[in-house]
Design brief:
The protein has a single domain, classed as Up-down Bundle (Rhopdopsin 7-helix transmembrane proteins), CATH 1.20.1070.10. By secondary structure, it is mainly alpha-helical. It starts with a helix and ends with a helix. Helices cover about 80% and strands about 5% of the residues. The longest helix is centred in the middle third of the chain and has 34 residues, at about 95-125. It has 13 helices and three strands; from the N terminus they run αβαααβααααβααααα. Helix 3 (about 25-50) runs parallel beside helix 12 and helix 11 runs antiparallel to helix 12 (about 270-290). It has a three-stranded mixed β-sheet with strand order 2-1-3.
Length: about 325
C-alpha cells in the first residue's frame, strides 16, 4: 500500500521534443494546424457519410466510425502538447498520465479491430456480392462496431492497473510526448521484465489476432480480382478497397514496429518519432487517402459543397 500511495502523488514531466520546445510559439501553431486539419477532415467524412444517401452502406458506416476513432486518437495526445507549448509547463499528474494512457491504448486497440472488420466487409462485398446485403445488415454492422469498442475498453484496464501499482522512485521525466507504456514503466525502480513480456503478449494478441482476418480477406479479394477478365473491371473492383489497404499497411507497419519487436532493440527516441507517425500523421491523412482514391466520396463531397455551402451563399 505504501507504493500505491506514493505513486498516486507522482507528477510526471513530459520531455516531448526538446528541439521543438526551443520555438514554442511556432511549434504551437504548427501542431494546432495539424490538429484542426485532423478534426476538420475526419468530421467532414462523418458528415458526408451521414448526409449523402448514396453512402448509406456498411463500407461508409465503418469509414465514419474510423474517422471518429481518428479524431479521438489525436485528441488524447495533441491538446496536452498544445498546452505544454502554450504554458511551457510540462508536468502531468499521475492520474492524468494513467487516464491518457488508458484512452490511447483503448482507441488504438479499437482501431485494430475496426480495420479488421472493414477488411471483412470488403471481402464479403467482392467475393460474396449476392449475400452482401444479407450478411452485412445494419444490425450486424452496429454489433461489429460495438464489439470493436468493447474489446478496446475491456482489454486495457489490467495493463493500466499493473502500471499504476509500480513504484516510481527514479526520474519522473517521460521521454515521450504523451504517456505510453514503454517510456512510463522505464521510470520504475522495480523489475519490469515480466511486465514487458506481458505487455508484449497483450499487444501481440491484439495485433496478430486481427492480422489473419485482414490477410485472409485480401488474399480472397486478390484471387477474385485476378479472375475478372476485364481490365476495367479489375481496376474498378480494386479501387473499392485500395484506400483501406493503404491505411492498413501504413498503420500496422508502424504499430508492429512499436509494440511487437524485441525490447532489446527498443529506442525511446525512435519510438517517440514513430508514435507521431501512427498517432498523429496517419489519422490526419486518412480523410485524404479515402477521399482522393474514392470516386463516390469525391462526388459526395462535391455535392455537399455545392448544395450546402455554395448555393446558399449565391442566393
Amino acid at each position: 500500500m505504501e507504493w500505491v500511495n506514493r505513486t498516486s502523488l507522482v507528477e510526471f514531466t513530459i520531455l516531448g521534443f526538446p528541439g521543438l520546445m526551443a520555438e514554442p510559439v511556432f511549434s504551437f501553431f504548427i501542431l494546432l494546424i495539424i490538429y484542426i486539419f485532423n478534426v476538420a477532415g475526419n468530421t467532414l467524412i462523418i458528415i458526408v457519410t451521414r448526409m449523402d444517401h448514396h453512402l448509406h452502406t456498411p463500407m461508409y458506416f465503418f469509414l465514419g466510425n474510423l474517422s471518429f476513432v481518428d479524431i479521438s486518437f489525436t485528441t488524447v495526445t495533441l491538446p496536452k502538447m498544445l498546452a505544454i507549448f502554450l504554458s511551457q509547463k510540462r508536468t502531468i499528474s499521475f492520474a492524468g498520465c494513467m487516464t491518457q494512457m488508458y484512452f490511447f491504448l483503448t482507441i488504438g486497440t479499437t482501431e485494430c479491430f475496426l480495420l479488421a472488420v472493414m477488411s471483412y466487409d470488403r471481402y464479403v462485398a467482392i467475393c460474396n456480392p449476392l449475400k452482401y446485403t444479407l450478411i452485412m445488415r445494419r444490425e450486424s454492422c452496429v454489433l461489429m462496431v460495438l464489439g470493436c469498442w468493447m474489446t478496446g475498453v475491456l482489454s486495457v484496464p489490467l495493463p493500466i492497473i499493473l502500471i499504476s501499482r509500480l513504484p516510481y522512485c527514479q526520474s519522473h521525466v517521460i521521454n515521450h510526448f504523451f504517456c505510453d507504456i514503454s517510456p512510463v514503466i522505464q521510470l520504475s525502480c522495480s523489475d519490469i521484465h515480466h511486465l514487458e513480456v506481458f505487455f508484449s503478449f497483450v499487444a501481440s494478441v491484439v495485433i496478430l489476432g486481427t492480422i489473419p482476418v485482414i490477410l485472409m480477406s485480401y488474399v480472397h479479394i486478390i484471387l477474385t480480382i485476378l479472375r475478372i477478365t476485364s481490365s476495367t473491371g479489375k481496376k474498378k473492383t480494386f479501387s473499392t478497397c485500395a484506400s483501406h489497404l493503404t491505411v492498413v499497411l501504413i498503420y500496422y507497419g508502424t504499430i508492429i514496429f512499436m509494440y511487437i519487436r524485441p525490447k532489446s532493440k527498443s529506442n525511446l527516441d525512435l519510438d517517440k518519432q514513430t508514435s507521431v507517425f501512427y498517432s498523429v500523421i496517419i489519422p490526419t491523412l486518412n480523410p485524404l487517402i479515402y477521399s482522393l482514391r474514392n470516386t463516390e466520396m469525391k462526388n459526395a463531397l462535391r455535392t455537399l459543397f455545392q448544395n450546402r455551402l455554395l448555393f446558399p451563399v449565391l442566393s
